[in-house]
């Protein structure tokens, strides 16, 4: 089997690239040939240093580094990206699977016709909602609440929901409209990283689309669980924004009488520091993990938006650290409420209530032990993810190139699965 993985970067710049890198490495270690196409030149993660991984740098610009006009034009349709992807694919040995992880920073909708033209199955992992929603997160930044509008409806088009400006929203609407026409009725396999994403997106695509479910991998190894009862703070790890709930953690921790510790950076950094919170800034993955193991009584992930699957939640559970997750987040599906952590509404009062329970050492210790035991009873490691991905690829290949056949067989497989 030869799998082509397409991503915008060859080093982690976010969750999508992290998953793409770990998936590529896991597949290679299973003996599968992998070609990794990176859109933007830059650092290369050591995970790609493997004899069965071929890396191809497309040398495209990151549209975030271009001027407003050039960035808008190439974001909507990047002709050069399509040409370079096409040339790279033509030079490769026979391809069995094309798996796209991210496309908004350099590739644009222009690459989809190139992928479809190969005649091979095309998969897209939905790390966000850009395939349907113009602003990508189903969130009203103007109202600080999840969006209830149907993407690209008349109400959606006029809603001032973008985090930047109405003009930026207009560019993204144009991109989404062109993407919709580009996808048309072409066969497409959408890979969801949480059940909520699959439910939310299922009604938005036509008969050419088949939906699949595949957990994200977690780059962890079995170690003794942390001792969160010895920790001194509720820890938040990620970008410091309102949509991700950083301000909620600070307010709830104050109300509960617990320190709040923030690892990350973002627009709320000054506000959090002014309120007396400890903000450490971005840390390396190893340093962040060490801080969590030493200081976290729990990891808080109270996203206001419909976050698909923050990897930090899975990593904390693997280390035996309780998680307080938003009920809107896909990660809440991995938290057993009251057993391995808490699932709550992303509201300061609700968070303060469960944070107060984290003052009890015995409660925290029990949650942490259960979190560790439950994660490692069915670990979502790189190896297990790769096996599941390889099984999915083989299933799609055996089912035929068209999604109609695949959908029928996939439904039969799901219906016959043990419960």
TrEMBL record:
Belongs to the glycosyltransferase group 1 family. Glycosyltransferase 4 subfamily. InterPro entries: Glyco_trans_1 (IPR001296), Glyco_trans_4-like_N (IPR028098). The lineage of its organism: Bacteria, Pseudomonadati, Pseudomonadota, Alphaproteobacteria, Hyphomicrobiales. Pfam families: Glyco_trans_4_4, Glycos_transf_1. It comes from the Bacteria. Residues 14-136 form the Glycosyltransferase subfamily 4-like N-terminal domain. Keywords: Glycosyltransferase, Transferase. GO terms for molecular function: glycosyltransferase activity. This is Glycosyl transferase group 1. It comes from Methylobacterium gregans. Residues 226-358 form the Glycosyl transferase family domain.
């Amino acid at each position: 089997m030869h799998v082509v993985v397409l991503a915008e970067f060859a080093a982690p710049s976010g969750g999508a690239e992290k998953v793409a890198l770990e998936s590529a490495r896991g597949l290679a270690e299973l003996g599968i040939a992998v070609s990794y196409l990176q859109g933007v030149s830059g650092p290369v993660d050591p995970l790609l240093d493997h004899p069965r991984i071929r890396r191809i740098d497309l040398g495209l610009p990151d549209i975030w580094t271009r001027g407003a006009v050039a960035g808008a034009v190439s974001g909507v349709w990047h002709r050069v990206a399509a040409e370079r992807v096409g040339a790279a694919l033509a030079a490769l040995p026979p391809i069995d699977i094309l798996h796209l992880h991210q496309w908004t920073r350099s590739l644009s909708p222009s690459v989809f016709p190139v992928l479809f033209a190969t005649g091979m199955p095309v998969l897209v992992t939905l790390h966000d909602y850009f395939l349907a929603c113009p602003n990508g997160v189903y969130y009203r930044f103007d109202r600080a609440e999840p969006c209830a509008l149907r993407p690209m409806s008349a109400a959606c088009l006029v809603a001032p929901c973008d985090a930047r400006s109405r003009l930026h929203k207009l560019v993204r609407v144009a991109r989404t409209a062109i993407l919709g026409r580009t996808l048309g009725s072409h066969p497409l396999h959408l890979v969801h990283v949480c059940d909520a994403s699959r439910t939310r997106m299922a009604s938005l695509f036509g008969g050419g689309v088949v939906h699949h479910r595949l957990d994200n991998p977690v780059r962890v190894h079995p170690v003794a669980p942390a001792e969160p009862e010895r920790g001194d703070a509720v820890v938040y790890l990620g970008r410091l924004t309102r949509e991700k709930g950083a301000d909620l953690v600070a307010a709830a921790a104050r109300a509960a009488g617990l320190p709040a510790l923030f690892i990350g950076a973002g627009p709320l950094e000054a506000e959090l520091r002014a309120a007396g919170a400890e903000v450490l800034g971005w840390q390396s993955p190893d340093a962040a993990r060490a801080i969590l193991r030493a200081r976290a009584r729990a990891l808080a992930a109270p996203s206001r938006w419909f976050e698909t699957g923050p990897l930090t939640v899975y990593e904390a559970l693997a280390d035996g650290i309780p998680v307080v997750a938003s009920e809107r987040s896909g990660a809440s599906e991995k938290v057993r409420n009251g057993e391995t952590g808490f699932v709550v509404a992303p509201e300061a009062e609700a968070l303060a209530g469960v944070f107060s329970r984290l003052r009890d050492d015995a409660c925290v210790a029990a949650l942490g032990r259960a979190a560790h035991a439950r994660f490692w009873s069915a670990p979502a490691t790189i190896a297990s993810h790769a096996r599941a991905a390889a099984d999915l690829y083989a299933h799609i290949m055996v089912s035929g190139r068209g999604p109609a056949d695949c959908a029928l067989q996939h439904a039969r497989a799901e219906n016959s699965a043990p419960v």
